[in-house]
Amino acid sequence: MSPILLKGYKHLPVSAVVTVAMIAFSLAGSILNIRSYFLLAFSPFISRWHQWWRLLLFQLQFQNESQLVLGVVLFTFAFKNLERIFGSLKFTQILLLLYFYNAVFLAAILAVLYMFLGINIYIPSGPYGILFGLMYPFKKYTPTVYQVELNFGALNRASDLPDNAADVEGESPDGLNSSSNDDFHLFFGNNTIAMALATILFFSEGVVSSPIACLVGYLVGALLFNDFLPFRDSKFAFLHNFYHKCKQKIPFLRRRYIALGSSTDETKFPVGVARKRRSVQQRVARNS
């Protein structure tokens, strides 16, 4: 696979659709004034009014614009690259499983807390669980490209030295350039910005509501990618058929479909491997 990644959403149709959907659902909810239908709490929505359909809607749109910006930037900056790793079809299946398992887990947790402990927790609307479910494979499969270390120990040692500690020739005093285990270090890497955005989104609805949704999502992601939850490696026939029909009918999906070759199985071969495989087949055909 080429070490140079393509910019933007080229060859990432599922990520493009997800990004547009996050923006469209949030804007539609704001314009149509229907955001209240996306809220979730066990009481009164489930226990009294039996509005079970809220379990299907609460992950579709963010409640305010700041959360929408954080979610879109986080997905665009970090998680869309997971589609390059898994392939578009597999990535779609992962998103659907995270959507389903988050709804089930949160419904069970809300029911247990309310029925046995009398605690009614409000869950903010938005794909918190899906985004933090993707955080686990992002940390697991994304390599560390670079890491920068800032060591503030020399500043602390310099402040403790007397004024006449430096020699006349301008050389550093003994011990100023040495390192100690007690020094204060800061590390920055290629994943630092993604972690910072995730932290802000984690506390965007206080210290209870959004952290619960995010922690449940991360737990679901960890269980799913460690094979404690089923269907990650299953092949859904309806999803395969729907995906390949969309690739043939939707223009920007069809261009990617033609570029990769219609015989490429994206669930098994990444983009670079598929190209090498196709070039080998062409050379064999010419030689024969």
Description of the molecule:
By secondary structure, this protein is mostly helical. The protein has 2 domains: 13-144 and 191-234, Rhomboid-like (Rhomboid-like fold), CATH 1.20.1540.10; 148-187, no CATH class. It is built from 13 helices and 4 strands. Strands 1-2 form a two-stranded antiparallel ribbon. The two termini are 27 Å apart. Residues 167-171 and 257-271 have low confidence and may be disordered.
Short description:
The protein has 288 residues and is mainly alpha-helical. Helix content is 59%, strand content 5%. α6 packs across α7.
Q: What's the total count of β strands?
A: 4
> Taking Cα atoms only, what radius of gyration do you get, to the nearest Å?
25 Å
CATH class group of the largest domain? Mainly Alpha
- Put simply, the count of helices is 13
Q: Separation of termini?
A: 27 Å
List the helices and strands and how they pair.
Elements: H1 13-31, E1 40-41, H2 42-46, H3 54-57, H4 65-79, H5 81-86, H6 88-117, E2 122-123, H7 128-141, E3 147-151, H8 153-160, E4 185-189, H9 192-202, H10 209-225, H11 237-249, H12 251-260, H13 271-287
Antiparallel strand pairs: 1-2, 3-4
Name a few traits of the molecule.
single chain, mainly alpha, Rhomboid-like fold, 2 domains, two-stranded antiparallel sheet, two-stranded antiparallel ribbon, 4 strands, 5% strand, transmembrane, serine-type endopeptidase activity
